[in-house]
Specification:
The complex is a heterodimer of chains A (465) and B (273). By secondary structure, chain A is of the alpha/beta class. Chain A is built from 8 helices and 18 strands. Chain B has 273 residues and is mainly α. Classes of the chains: A alpha/beta (465), B mainly alpha (273).
Chain lengths: 465, 273
């Protein structure tokens, strides 16, 4: 396995605030301070402190974490800190991470737009990056002229552009519009042209940053297919997106960034040299990103902080994913039954209660909802005061391989105004060892990546003559 | 075996590497030039005629004011010829210098999204400036024929003089470009100095009217040498070859220095654009 990109201890710091403070600003501040002192002295109002210090009142996921300020020069922060990884030739790597995690800085350095503060990276062959739709396009020029210009900005020679010109126009489906100045294009047409050029550039490595957002569904699919086709020919792809569906469709590996560092993979295999961080599986990265490290198979709450109905009459105690033996586990075989256990306590039996589960894929695609309404004994949903426990069995022969998120709702009746709703209460994964049994029959190859794999019935017999 | 490129935080910039990369991107230089030419005359009726119109109108006015009314000495040339041969290079110089100086800022959208050698932008400006100059030069030659002043030397030395003038404009522009991107003060300061520089050059007046103690000012300034040389080539006076060689060397040094400084600074400037 040869590498396409090697990154070693890449770091980059940026300044906080601006570099130049215009004299006018300080003058203005000074005047303002004097005036406020003056008005305080003559008793109009209390003096105002001219300097406004930001107060970090918001808790939770700050954009800048404290370790990004360690060892940085004064007024600087680390946008990237000691990032190392290696990407093999032909890999399609998805880069995920929250805003401010360093994705764009990494791409900018890899695209050679800016230089790293420390560290280095190598790449094999030519590298083309598409950080923005239609960079370098000139509105007054026609589509044809822009194709040539854009391809040349990306380092192609005139002759090479002429060779691929027709396929670019075909791919963009712009047809006769190609000679219209592009300022008269719709944003979708603009994007089609831009992507068509990028997809046809000759390069061994393609970097794409969140650009598929425009364009109609048909063209988006065409782009994804084109990128898959490109990488099938040995081209390496780096793809940054917040669209987890696109990442899971397109990529075979992933890299999660957080606060300027690469989140280390738990189950990825280490690389040959052992120096660089291993890339993650796509599922691991997406779950890290989507669930923010809260992927748990069991969740229980202590007194006082438990989710409760607004009036405090029902408390949720515990939600867990269990196997057939009632043990809480995270991972199931595709042939296992999966149990969702919900424990709650009724303090004041004033509502009719029903438990619901909402199951989605990791990327948020809705799969199904199940309610206990059909299984309530005697059809009476009024619960006595005290603890209750419900278990829902998700039978084998429904879910495919993958990770699933479960949202739990305790529904109050007749009005649902007091519902208890817990998003992403628990998650679990389903794996498949590929053994030819169950829904597979004698199929031993990879099962297509669709969220469900239901056991359906096939009627097989001779056809009509 | 495909080529391996290494990018590190401490990569020394080498002239050879730079030239090789510029050669790889030579098509882009033409592409930028063609784009700017096309865009400049997009939706105009007169199109490229504007290249001649601007100097011709100023030449008309200046000839009336200084040639007919004030009667500034003109080294034995008709004032129109005298002024034309200076103003055509001046406009080309001015355009290239201004564009190069603000190249990082004006192309920020491109620079912050795609990698290519940034010098390509400045070079394409010089190419366009030369095209503009050549159009104006053709008009100048036309007038020289009309006044029967045309000499072979005037035609043959033009490429060298154009080179000196462009190297000087590019070099100065590149020296200022990083500072212009960093401190916008430069943008406010430069127009004033450009105006002063216009009068420091023998454009509306001949070198011969300057006092002896100020003559050196016209010798150390390559652009003044260029203008003076054009005039001596037309009026048959002796051309100072030593001075020309000096101007050539000085502008080359400025160009090399400007290019090196630009390359050293340009990479970090993306972050402050």
């Amino acid at each position: 396995m040869t590498w396409a990109i090697q990154v070693e201890n890449l770091s980059k710091h940026y300044r906080l605030g601006t570099t130049v403070t215009p004299a006018v600003d300080s003058l203005y501040l000074a005047i303002e301070r004097r005036l406020s002192l003056l008005s305080a002295r003559i008793g109009l109002r209390s003096p105002v402190d001219g300097s406004i210090e930001p107060k970090a009142a918001a808790t939770g996921n700050l954009v800048l974490s404290p370790h990004q300020l360690e060892d940085a020069p004064p007024n600087h922060f680390w946008a990237l800190r000691d990032v190392s990884f290696e990407i093999a030739e032909g890999d399609r790597v998805g880069i995920v991470g929250k805003n401010g995690s360093g994705k764009s800085t990494l791409l900018k350095i890899l695209s050679r737009i800016t230089t790293p503060t420390h560290g280095l990276f190598r790449f094999r062959g030519r590298l083309v990056s598409l950080l923005e739709v239609g960079t370098g396009f000139h509105p007054d020029l026609s589509g044809r002229e822009n194709i040539f210009l854009n391809a040349k900005i990306n380092g192609m020679s005139s002759r090479a552009v002429r060779n691929i010109f027709d396929s670019i126009v075909d791919f963009s489906e712009l047809g006769g519009q190609i000679d219209t100045p592009i300022k008269r294009y719709s944003s979708g047409m603009y994007m089609r042209l831009a992507f068509s050029v990028a997809a046809h550039l000759e390069s061994e490595i393609l970097i794409v940053d969140e650009v598929l957002a425009v364009g109609d569904a048909g063209f988006q699919k065409k782009c994804l297919d084109k990128m898959l086709e490109i990488s099938g020919r040995g081209r390496t792809l780096l793809f940054v997106s917040h669209d987890m569906n696109a990442i899971s469709k397109l990529c075979n590996k992933a890299l999660e960034m957080a606060h300027g560092r690469v989140v280390p993979a738990v189950c990825g295999e280490p690389d040959v040299t052992g120096k660089a961080a291993a890339l993650m599986t796509v599922n691991e990265a997406i779950s890290g990103y989507v669930l923010d490290g809260t992927a748990v198979s069991e969740r229980s709450w202590t007194k006082g902080i438990e989710p409760a109905t607004q009036d405090g009459s029902v408390l949720l105690r515990k939600v867990s994913i269990q196997n057939v033996d009632g043990v809480s586990v995270r991972s199931f075989d595709v042939k296992d039954d999966i149990f969702v256990s919900i424990e709650f306590e009724v303090i004041d039996p004033k509502w009719k209660l029903n438990a619901h589960i909402y199951v989605t894929t990791l990327t948020g695609q809705r799969l199904f909802v199940s309610m206990d309404n059909n299984d309530i004994p005697d059809g009476v949903a009024e619960r006595a005061a005290g603890p209750h426990r419900e278990r829902c069995r998700i039978k084998t022969g429904l879910l495919n391989e993958g990770m699933y998120r479960v949202e739990v709702v305790i529904c109050t009746n007749p009005t649902s105004a007091f519902n208890i709703v817990v998003d992403d209460a628990v998650t679990f994964s389903v794996t498949d060892d590929g053994a030819p049994d169950g829904v597979r029959g004698d199929w031993t190859r990879e099962w297509p990546n669709y969220p469900i794999r239901p056991a359906l019935e096939w009627d097989i017999g001779p056809g009509n003559h | 075996m495909t080529k391996i490129t290494t990018i590190s935080s401490s990569k020394p910039t080498s002239i050879i590497g730079l030239l090789r990369e510029l050669w790889l991107y030579r098509d882009l230089i033409w592409a930028f030039s063609a784009r700017d030419l096309k865009v400049k005359y997009f939706q105009t009726i007169l199109g490229p005629l504007w290249v001649i119109m601007t100097p011709l109108i100023t030449v008309g006015v200046m000839t009336f004011v200084f040639g007919i009314m004030v009667r500034v000495p003109s080294d034995g040339l008709p004032y129109l010829m005298f002024y034309l041969v200076a103003i055509v290079p001046w406009y080309a110089f001015l355009t290239v210098f201004n564009q190069t100086m603000s190249s990082l800022e004006s192309q920020a959208g491109l620079i912050s999204k795609i990698y290519f050698p940034r010098l390509v932008i400045a070079i394409s400006y010089a190419v366009n400036g030369s095209v503009d100059f050549l159009v104006g030069y053709a008009v100048t030659v036309g007038f020289a024929i009309y006044f029967s002043l045309l000499s072979w030397e005037f035609l043959l030395l033009m490429p060298l003089l154009l080179f000196i003038q462009m190297a000087w404009a590019l070099g100065l522009g590149l020296l200022l470009a990083p500072y212009n991107a960093r401190f916008r003060d430069v943008k406010h300061m430069v127009p004033l100095f450009v105006q002063l520089y216009y009068f420091a050059n023998p454009i509306v007046y001949p070198v011969s009217v300057a006092p002896v103690w100020a003559q050196w000012l016209f010798k150390i300034n390559p652009f003044a040498v260029v203008i003076a040389t054009y005039r001596t080539l037309l009026n048959g006076q002796r051309t100072d070859w030593m001075l020309l060689a000096y101007a050539c060397l000085a502008s080359l040094l400025i160009l090399a220095g400007g290019a090196l400084l630009f390359m050293r600074k340009e990479k970090d400037l993306v972050d402050v654009l």
